[in-house]
Specification:
Elements lengths: L21 H12 L18 E10 L5 E12 L5 E8 L4 H17 L6 E7 L7 H15 L8 E5 L5 H15 L23 H16 L8 E5 L3 H12 L3 E6 L4 E3 L6 H12 L8 E3 L11 E4 L8 H6 L4 E3 L8 H9 L3 E3 L1 H4 L2 H15 L5 H26 L3 H20 L4
Parallel strand pairs: 3-4, 3-5, 6-7, 6-10, 10-11, 11-12
Antiparallel strand pairs: 1-2, 2-4, 7-8, 8-9
Helix pairs in contact: 1-2, 1-13, 2-13, 3-4, 5-6, 5-11, 5-12, 11-12, 12-13
Bound molecules: nicotinamide-adenine-dinucleotide (NAD).
Nicotinamide-adenine-dinucleotide (NAD) binds next to α6.
């Protein structure tokens, strides 16, 4: 037997995707869209491999005077439609394979939402809770220097993701500026507002989930008022979605994070839960709700489920158990392909990550445009333009899903793959 034969035949020698790993999930999602691409289908191989990957060593001096080494990555999946764009994650489980998948999803997301960007993603394998602020700054600056040759305002523009925020972006921008001698505010997005950041960026991803979620609920005849919502992940994305849905009259009945899970059938008091979780211990031990087993979170009676933590959370088993009729994917890659099939067969609608959480990159795009123009918009302008872009994308993908009789995810991949591959055809093959 040809030892290259595998479900991912012709694949890269340096990564071994499985059915449940992020890159394996990404490839399966691309493969589901391919039969619908007509004359573009033979070109799909270009989306089944990243344009470029970089692994860097990050040596830093710890506060106690000893040295530590961390592994960092930047994957650039496609630049066909514009510069690379995608976040930077600090997490102990970061791998090259995960970053490649996240970069691939960024290509699909930016194309599905019709932004002039390609796809990229980065990460450093570390547990930020174990580092001091000074140590985190040293890691961030050295990581930025090491990937400095392949990022830039016209090349590849990082942004916040899991465990990274406006402060990390400020250090990244400053390091890039020191190394190049250019002000280069446009090298990262998600910066503090007085350093060229955009109003509305911090809450943009959760706001996009909320705006799209309300529209999807309208189309499914599900009232927002009184709807019971369960949310996994209570960081930037999950907590903002919780705040906005609660303000619209929905009941946030359960929240699970990495520390625990909490439940209240009458709806959790979101502001108090947020203050408690920001105290450092996550949602665990919150006195305004009942502590439940983390796995029982998936059995909670609700109309809407919002996974907003990490990849691979909705497994086949959990997909068979959940009670929600609508899943809004705040996280990237939370649903495995087999779980998607189960949700589909149960009539559960999934608004996929590649459009559902695109509010963040949409406002990152606004930030990048404002930095080039050195002219800044009001928060109302940002929020209105955000809503228009994400709702147009939902409308387009919803129509394709009904016309082609495929899930919203496959429809989004079809729309996006067509756009990226048309750009490839128009550019031609270099040299
Ligand atoms: P964050 O670091 O602010 O929050 C992550 C949350 O997930 C925390 O509450 C953490 O406790 C929880 N979590 C981590 N591991 C978990 C586990 N094993 N089980 C349950 N909960 C767990 O990160 P974020 O920026 O909110 O990102 C969350 C997701 O949204 C990620 O998939 C990210 O890629 C995606 N996303 C983020 C943005 C953005 O603008 N921040 C944009 C698009 C997509």
């Amino acid at each position: 037997m040809d030892d290259r034969a595998s479900p991912f035949a012709g694949d890269l020698s340096y990564v071994y995707p499985t059915k449940t790993s992020p890159w394996g999930t990404f490839l399966a999602q691309v493969d589901r869209a391919t039969p619908f691409l007509g004359s573009l289908a033979p070109l799909i191989e270009t989306l089944r491999r990243p344009k470029r990957t970089l692994i860097v060593d990050i040596p830093i001096e710890l506060d106690n005077g000893t040295m530590a080494h961390f592994e960092g990555f930047r994957a650039q999946h496609s630049f066909a439609r514009g510069p690379g764009k995608g976040g930077v994650r600090f997490h102990p489980d970061v791998t090259l394979e995960e970053v490649m998948a996240l970069a691939g999803w960024m290509t699909i997301k930016n194309a599905a939402i019709n932004l002039p960007f390609g796809g990229a993603k980065g990460g450093v394998r570390l547990d930020p809770r174990k580092l001091s602020k000074k140590e985190l700054e040293r890691v961030t600056r050295r990581y930025t220097s090491e990937i400095g040759a392949i990022i830039g305002p016209q090349q590849d523009i990082p942004a916040p993701d899991v465990n990274t925020d406006a402060q990390i972006m400020a250090w990244m921008m400053d390091t890039y500026a020191m190394n190049t001698g250019l002000a280069s505010t446009g090298v990262v997005t998600g910066k503090p507002v007085h350093l060229g950041g955009s109003l509305g960026r911090v809450k943009a991803t959760g706001r996009g989930v909320f705006v799209m979620g309300c529209e999807a609920m309208k189309r499914l005849n599900m009232p927002v008022e009184g709807a019971r919502i369960a949310i996994q992940g209570f960081g930037n994305v999950g907590s903002t979605a919780a705040e906005l849905f609660a303000a619209a009259g929905a009941l946030i009945v359960a929240v699970q994070d990495s520390r625990g899970a909490i439940f209240c059938s009458r709806g959790l008091p979101v502001a108090e839960l947020l203050a408690h979780s920001q105290g450092g211990g996550g949602v665990a031990n919150f006195s305004g709700g009942e502590t439940i087993d983390r796995e029982s979170f998936w059995d909670v009676a609700c109309e809407v489920l919002i996974p907003s933590a990490l990849e691979g959370q909705l497994t086949e088993t959990r997909a068979g158990r959940i009670k929600a009729q609508l899943v809004l994917e705040g996280a990237n890659g939370p649903t495995l392909p087999e779980a998607d099939d189960i949700l589909g067969s149960r009539g559960i609608v999934v608004v996929p990550d590649v459009i559902c959480n695109a509010g963040g990159v949409t406002v990152s795009y606004f930030e990048w445009v404002q930095d080039f123009a050195s002219y800044y918009w009001t928060e109302d302008e940002i929020n209105q333009r955000l809503a228009k872009i994400v709702l147009d994308a939902l409308d387009h993908v919803w129509e394709a899903s009904q016309r082609l009789r495929v899930s919203l995810r496959t429809a989004a991949f079809i729309v996006a793959c067509e756009r990226v591959l048309i750009a490839h055809v128009e550019r031609g093959l270099y040299p």
